[in-house]
Design brief:
By secondary structure, the chain is of the alpha+beta class. It is built from 3 helices and 4 strands; from the N terminus they run αβββαβα. A 4-stranded antiparallel β-sheet has the order 1-4-2-3. It is globular and about 35 Å long. The two termini are 22 Å apart. It comes from Pseudomonas asturiensis. This is GIY-YIG nuclease family protein.
Length: 125
């Protein structure tokens, strides 16, 4: 799967509310130091490597922080390896206004089922 397909999946279902989100693609090894607007907002994170979605998740206060915790914990026994993979990306679908955080759960659930990540969320079954 290409990044373009991830973005199209989001736009196809949530295009009507896409303006509520700021979408950012970060190199996994640079995500912790990114100071751009909205990256520390509530949102959905998608870890991507060439030809595969690795993990989809969400956080209702700071999606980037939660995403990076997966690297430290080496979730699924594979997440830490993404730091050394130059092509790996962290896609953040951050809500611009934290009051719109209720949309985060819907986006995460939809992307989890549509993208079939290698590391699945236990809470979604």
């Amino acid at each position: 799967m290409e990044i373009r397909q991830v973005l199209e999946c989001f736009a196809g279902e949530f295009g009507g509310i896409a303006s509520k989100f700021h979408i950012r693609q970060l190199k996994v090894n640079e995500a912790a130091t990114c100071s751009e607007s909205y990256v520390a907002n509530p949102g959905v994170y998608v870890f991507w490597k060439p030809n595969a979605v690795v993990k989809v998740g969400r956080h209702l206060t700071n999606a980037r922080k939660r995403a990076l915790e997966h690297i430290g914990a080496n979730t699924g026994g594979t997440m830490a390896d993404l730091v050394g993979l130059e092509e790996a990306r962290l896609l953040l679908f951050s809500v611009i206004d934290p009051a719109d955080r209720h949309w985060v759960a819907a986006v995460e659930i939809y992307l989890e089922f549509k993208l079939s990540p290698e590391v699945r969320s236990a809470r979604l079954g």
